[in-house]
Design a protein that fits this description.
The complex is a heterodimer. Chain A is mainly α. Chain A contains five helices and two strands. Chain A has a two-stranded antiparallel ribbon with strand order 1-2. The longest helix of chain A has 47 residues. Chain B is mostly helical. Chain B is globular, with a radius of gyration of 23 Å. The chains are: A mainly alpha, B mainly alpha. Chain A: This is DUF485 domain-containing protein.
Chain lengths: 120, 536
Amino acid sequence: MSIDKNASGTVYQRFQGTAEFQELRTRFRRFAFPMTVAFLTWYLLYVVLSGWARGFMGTELFGAINVALVFGLLQFVTTFGIAYYYSRHAGRRLDPLADKIRGDIEAEEAQGAGTAEDAR
Amino acid sequence: MSNETLSILLFLVFVAATLAITVWASRNTKNATDFYAGGRSFSGPQNGLAIGGDYMSAASFLGIAGLIALYGYDGFLYSIGFLVAWLVALLLVAELLRNSGRFTMADVLAFRMSPRPVRTAAGVSTITVSIFYLLAQMVGAGALVALLFGFTSEFAKGATIALVGVLMIVYVVFGGMKGTTWVQIVKAVLLMTGAALVTLLVLTEFGFNLSSLLNDAAEQSGKGEAFLEPGLRYGTEEQGLTGKLDLISLGLALVLGTAGLPHILIRFYTVPTARDARKSVMWGIGLIGTFYLFTLVLGFGAAALVGSEEISRVNEAGNTAAPQLAEKIGEIMFGDAGGTILLAVIAAVAFATILAVVAGLTLASSSSFAHDLYAHVFRKGKATERDEVRVARISALVIGAVSIVLGIYAQRLNVAFLVALAFAVAASGNLPAILYSLFWKRFNTAGAVSAIYGGLGAALFLVIFSPVVSGSEKALFTDSDWSWFPLQNPGLISIPVGFLCGFVGTVLSKEYNAEKYAEIEVRSLTGAGAEKAVKH
C-alpha cells in the first residue's frame, strides 16, 4: 500500500484517508452497528412482552415449560451466538486488514515520520 | 464441627491464599502499568475469568437466586439484562478502548478533548459509580454475616464490614491490578465450582427434568403458575403502567450500563492486545451466561426444596436462598454432615465473591483519582509515575476507609437500589461519552462534559425524588416523603438525557480537532500505537 508521503497532516490522517482503512472501518461498522440495533431490539421486545403480553408469555409449551422461559433461554442462545459470530467475523474480515494497516503505519513511523509519538 | 466453624475455616484459607497472592503481586508491581493494568500481561482466558470474578457480585449470586426463589420468573428476567449487556461491551467498546486508552476510562474520553475538564468529569463519574456499587456490597457483607453465622449484633456486622474493607485495601494497595486480578480469578473458579456443584445435585434430585423442578417450585411457592410467569416482582398488575415502565427502565439501565462501568472497563487494559480483550469478553460471556443458567436452577431449586415461606422467614429479600438450598440438598443427598459441609462451602464462596468485587471497585476509583484527577488535573500532567502510583495507593486507603465508615453507617438503611442506580448512572453518563468519543467525528470537549454531567446529574436528581429514596416502606428514608418521580430506576429518562446532552453540548461548541480524531479512529481500529505489555 503506498500512501502519498507529501500529503499534509499526521501519519494517522494520511492513513485515515486510504481506501484500505476506509474498507476496514466500513467492515467494522456494517457489522457492529446493525447487530447492536438488532440485539437491543430483540432484548427490549422480550422485556416489553414480559410487561404487556403476559397471557402469551404464560402459554405452556410442554410440561411446565412456558413461552416466557423459552424466550428467556433464547436470549442466552442469541447472546452466545452473536458473540461467536462477531469473533468469527472479526478474525476473518477485520484482523488481517487491521494487521496489515498497523504494519504499514509502524513501518512508516520507524522511518522517522513518527509525528504521533512526538506529539504525545 | 458446626457449619459456622467450617465456613470460617474455609474463608480463612481463601484469605490466606489471596494474601499470599498479594505478596507475590506486590513484588512484581514495579511501575504504573503494573499497578493500574497488571503489566497488560494477562491472557484472554485469565482476564475472562477475572471479568467474571469482577462482575458476578453477591447481588447476582445471592440476590438473583433469592429473587427467583421468592418471585419466580422475574428473578430470571433480571439476570438476562446483566448478560445481554456484554454484547455492547464486546461489539462496541472492549477492543477499541484497549487500543486507544492506557489506564482509565478517561484516557479514551480525553484523547482528543481538552484534558482537564473531561478528566474531571470522568473522574467524578467513575468515583460516584464505584462508591455506590461499593457501598451496596459492603452493607451486603454485613447483612450476610448475620444471616450465615447468626451474628446479629450491630458490632458483629460492623466488624465484618471493617474486615472486608481492610482486606480489600490490602489487596489493592499492595497487589494493585495484578493482585486484584488473581483474587478475582480464584473467586471466579470457586464461585463457578460451588454453583455448578449445587446445580448438579439439584438437577440429579429432579432426574434432570426441568419441567418437574418448575412444577414443584410453582407448587411450593403457593403462587401456582404465576410463579413461572413474569409479573410477580417487576411491573405487577397493581402497580399498573408505572410498574411496567419501571421494568423497561431497569432493563435499559442493566443492558446499557455494563459497558460504562469503570471497574469493568479497566479490565480491558490488562491484556496485551485488542484481540486478547475480545477473547476475554468471549470467555466472560460464556462464564457469566453459564452462571445465570446455574442461578435459574438454584433459585427454582430453593423454591421447590426449601420453600418460599422458609426462605423469606430467614431473610425478607431472599438473600439466603442459595446457602439454604445448599444445606438442604446436601442433607438430602449425603445426610446431615453433607448439609453442613455444603452450607459452609457456599457461605465461604459468598464472602470470597464480595471481596473480589469490592477490590475491583476500590482499584477502579483509586486509579481514576490518581491518574485522572491528581496527575492530569491537579498536577497538569507533570506528576511522575512514582508519584502517581503513590497517590493511587493512598487514595485506595482513603476510599476504603471512607467506604468502611459509610458501610457501617448505612447498615440499617435500605441500600439495595444502589446497584441498579450505579448501572443507570454508567448508562446515562459514561456510555454516551464513550460511544460518541469512539464513533462521532464531531464530538468535542463540551459534548463530553455535557454528556457525563447531564447523564449523571439527571440520574441522581431523579432518584432523589423517586420512591426508593423517600415515601415508601422500602425507601432509604421511610419517615418522610418528598418523592414525585414515580419510577424506581431513572434509566428510562436519564439515559436519553445523557445522549441528548452530549449531542447538544457538541453542536453548540465549534471545537473540532481533525488530527486527533484521525489518530483515535485509526488507532482504535488497527491497534497502531497501542500500549504494549510490560516485559519483566
